[in-house]
Amino acid sequence: MNNERRRLLIGALGSIGLIGTSRVYATAEEVETAIKAIAGDAQIQQGALTLNAPEIAENGNSVPISVSVDSSMTSDSYVESVAIFADANPTPQVITFHFTENSGEAYAATRMRLATTQNVVAIAKMNDGSVFTDTKNVKVTIGGCGG
In terms of residue numbers, what domain contains 40? Predict the structure, then answer.
């Protein structure tokens, strides 16, 4: 059964009360596991990565974020990827940006949906295996995934 049919069936059964449709959010353990999958055994450090997110998001349906990593972006030292996690969304890993030494700079911006007030965590993996993090707590006032 494809995903669209499954969602339609679950929605129909939920609307007539045959099954519950309460939202299930990621747990702290799921977030840690997802981060561990990227970082491996590397020590996660503060510093080179900057995550920009609003302190208060008036609309959780469209929260602007950006990430930048202080890197020379040469073949000797560059950012391989930056992953974004939201610790109270249904799926903890929101997006991953991939870079190469030819990217020029390690910067990306997007909008994301946040279910509720939560931490947004960015993890940058460098080509030498080092890993950096930055975290922002975003207070969602209305309209997130959970309403």
Answer: 24-140
Neighbours of 70 (CB within 10 A): 13
CA pair distance 80, 43, nearest whole angstrom? 16
Q: How far apart are CA 74 and CA 145, in angstroms?
A: 39
108 assigned to some structural domain: yes
**Rounded Cα distance, 4 and 122, in Å:** 30
Q: Is residue 121 part of a domain?
A: yes
CATH number for position 47: 2.60.40.2470
Model confidence pLDDT, tens digit, residues 88-114:
888 889 999 999 999 999 999 999 999
Q: What is the pTM of this model?
A: 0.80
End-to-end CA distance of the chain: 28
Dist. CA 96–CA 106, nearest whole Å: 12
Bridge partners (DSSP) of residue 109 are: 66
